[in-house]
Structure formats: structure tokens, C-alpha cells
Write a structure and sequence with these properties.
Low-confidence stretches: none
Strand order of the largest sheet: 1-4-2-3
Largest sheet: 4 strands, antiparallel
Strand content: 35-45%
Shape: globular
Number of helices: 0
Helix content: under 10%
Order of helices and strands: EEEE
Structural class: mainly beta
Length: about 50
Amino acid sequence: MTASTGQICPISGVWKVVGYPTTTAPIAKGNRMPPYCGKAVTWQLIMQA
């Protein structure tokens, strides 16, 4: 499952930025997906909470 910066998080869990540089972040359902390094990115769910 993926979500882009600005979208509402569909599932609580640990999300990872697709591409490089990458990072992981815990994001709760209902929160907006954040930017990374000041840019809009695509996040991929790697572990559901």
C-alpha cells in the first residue's frame, strides 16, 4: 500500500519513503502524509500497527 504527501493516512503503521534518500516514520491513520526533505514523496506501508 502506498500514499503520497498530503493524502490522509489510510492505515496506522510504519511507513517508508519510496526512493532515495529514504526514511521510515510511524504515521497514524487519519493524519496527513508528510513531506520528506521538503519534497512531496510517496510513502509505502512496511509494518501495520
